[in-house]
C-alpha cells in the first residue's frame, strides 16, 4: 500500500472518505505548553504538534495609508477605564490579559456609537489588495510551496458575530439584533464584505480548506433565537461560503462555533458547510450528529476540554478517543482532538494518553508513522 501524504490523508478525512490514518488536532494554553515541552523535550513536542495542515495567512503588500494607532482610537474610549500599557489591535479592540489562562477581557470601541454613519467613519484597518492579481499570485506561490511539503492549506475569512461584538460589545450587539439597530447592521455589512473578499482570495490561491466561524452557541443552545440567527447571520455567512465555492467548488468549508448549535445545523448544511468544529460533547452528542449528518458533515474535535481532558483518568481519556475514532470516525469524517485550547489544569498524563490513544487506535502504529 502506498502511503499517502499528510495532505492527501487529511483531505480524505474532511471529505468524509476513509483515510489511511485518523488526523488529529491539538493546541495548549501557554503555561501548559511550556510544561509539556519540559516533559517531552522540544524535538518531540514539535513532532507531536506538527499538524497535517498549515494556515495560509497573508503575504507582504504595499499599504496606501498608515496603520491605525492608539491616537486614532482614543476618542472611542473616553470615559473607559483602560489599564496602562495595553494597546488596541488593528481593529481598535483593547484586550486586557487575564493572567494564568489564555483568556482576555475586551474593551469595545464602538460601544457608544449611535448611527451607521459613525461606523462608516470609524478608522477601519486597511484591507490587503485581495482583488489584485499580483497579490493572488503571491498567495498562490505560498499555497503551492506548502502543498509541495505534503501539507494541506487552510485559508481564512475572519468572522462576523464574534469580531462584530468585540467592536460593539456583546450585550449591545444582541440589543441591536432585538431592535433592528443600524449600528450592528453596518458593522456586520462591513465585516461580511471583507470576509467575502478574503474567502475568494483564499480560493483563488488554491487553499484546500476555508476556515471561518463565530461562537454563536452556549451550553444549552444558541446565544440568540434561531430566527434571529437566520435574519442577521445566516445570509452573511452564506455569502462567505458562496464566495469561496464559486471560485473553487471542492474547497472544504470549516466553521468553528462552540456550544450547542443543533437548532441550525440544517441551515449550515443548506448554505454549504462541510466540516463542523469543535462539537463539544458536553452539550452535543457526537455520535448523534454522526448518525444524523455524517453523510453531509465531517467533524473536527469531539474530545471534551470541560470533562474528560481535565477530570478524566488517562484510561478514561484513552477510551474516549478510541470511541470517537471508532464511531464518529467510521468511514472518515473526523479530525479528532480537544474541543478548545487545553487549559493548565489538565494533567500531563492525560496529554500523553491522548497521543498514545490516537497512535494506537488511529492506525499510526500499524502504518509505522510513530
Task: Please report which band the strand proportion falls in: under 5%, 5-15%, 15-25%, 25-35%, 35-45% or over 45%.
Answer: 5-15%
The amount of helix comes to 40-55%
CATH architecture of the largest domain: Alpha-Beta Barrel
**What is the chain-wise order of helices and strands?**
HHHEHEEHHEHHHEHHEHEHEHHEH
Q: Using the CA coordinates, give the radius of gyration.
A: 21 Å
Count of distinct strands:
9
Q: What is the overall shape?
A: globular
Q: Enumerate the spans where pLDDT stays under 50 for 5 or more consecutive residues.
A: none
Largest sheet: 7 strands, parallel
Helical region count?
Answer: 16
Class per helix and strand makeup: alpha/beta
CATH topology of the largest domain: TIM Barrel
Indicate the CATH class of the largest domain. Alpha Beta
Strand order of the largest sheet: 1-4-5-6-7-8-9
Mean pLDDT: 96
How many angstroms does the end-to-end distance come to?
17 Å
Work out the count of structural domains.
2
Amino acid at each position: 500500500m502506498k502511503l499517502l501524504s499528510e495532505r492527501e490523508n487529511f483531505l480524505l478525512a474532511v471529505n468524509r472518505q476513509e483515510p489511511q490514518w485518523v488526523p488529529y488536532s491539538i493546541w495548549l494554553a501557554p503555561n501548559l505548553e511550556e510544561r509539556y515541552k519540559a516533559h517531552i523535550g522540544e524535538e518531540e513536542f514539535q513532532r507531536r504538534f506538527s499538524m497535517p495542515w498549515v494556515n495560509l495567512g497573508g503575504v507582504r503588500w504595499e499599504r496606501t495609508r498608515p496603520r491605525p494607532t492608539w491616537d486614532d482610537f482614543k476618542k472611542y474610549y473616553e470615559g473607559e477605564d483602560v489599564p496602562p500599557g495595553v494597546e488596541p489591535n488593528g481593529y481598535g479592540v483593547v484586550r486586557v490579559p487575564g493572567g494564568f489562562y489564555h483568556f482576555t477581557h475586551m474593551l469595545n470601541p464602538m460601544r457608544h456609537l449611535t448611527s451607521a454613519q459613525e461606523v462608516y467613519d470609524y478608522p477601519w484597518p486597511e484591507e490587503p489588495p485581495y482583488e489584485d492579481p499580483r497579490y493572488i499570485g503571491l498567495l498562490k506561490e505560498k499555497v503551492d510551496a506548502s502543498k509541495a511539503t505534503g501539507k494541506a492549506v487552510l485559508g481564512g475569512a475572519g468572522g462576523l458575530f464574534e469580531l462584530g461584538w468585540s467592536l460593539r460589545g456583546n450585550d449591545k450587539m444582541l440589543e441591536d439584533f432585538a431592535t433592528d439597530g443600524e449600528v450592528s447592521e453596518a458593522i456586520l455589512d462591513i465585516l461580511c464584505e471583507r470576509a467575502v473578499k478574503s474567502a475568494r482570495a483564499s480560493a483563488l490561491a488554491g487553499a484546500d480548506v476555508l476556515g471561518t466561524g463565530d461562537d454563536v452557541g452556549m451550553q444549552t443552545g444558541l446565544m440568540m433565537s434561531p430566527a434571529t440567527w437566520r435574519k442577521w447571520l445566516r445570509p452573511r455567512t452564506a455569502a462567505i461560503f458562496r464566495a469561496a465555492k464559486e471560485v473553487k467548488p471542492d474547497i472544504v468549508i470549516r466553521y468553528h462555533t462552540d456550544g450547542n448549535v443543533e437548532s441550525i445545523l440544517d441551515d449550515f448544511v443548506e448554505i454549504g458547510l462541510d466540516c463542523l468544529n469543535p462539537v463539544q460533547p458536553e452539550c452535543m452528542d457526537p455520535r448523534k450528529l454522526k448518525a444524523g449528518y455524517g453523510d453531509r458533515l465531517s467533524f473536527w474535535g469531539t474530545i471534551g476540554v470541560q470533562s474528560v481532558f481535565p477530570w478524566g483518568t488517562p484510561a478514561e481519556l484513552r477510551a474516549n478517543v478510541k470511541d470517537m475514532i471508532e464511531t464518529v470516525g467510521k468511514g472518515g469524517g473526523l479530525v479528532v482532538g480537544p474541543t478548545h485550547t487545553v487549559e493548565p489544569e489538565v494533567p500531563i498524563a492525560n496529554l500523553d494518553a491522548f497521543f498514545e490513544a490516537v497512535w494506537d487506535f488511529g492506525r499510526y502504529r500499524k502504518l509505522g508513522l510513530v
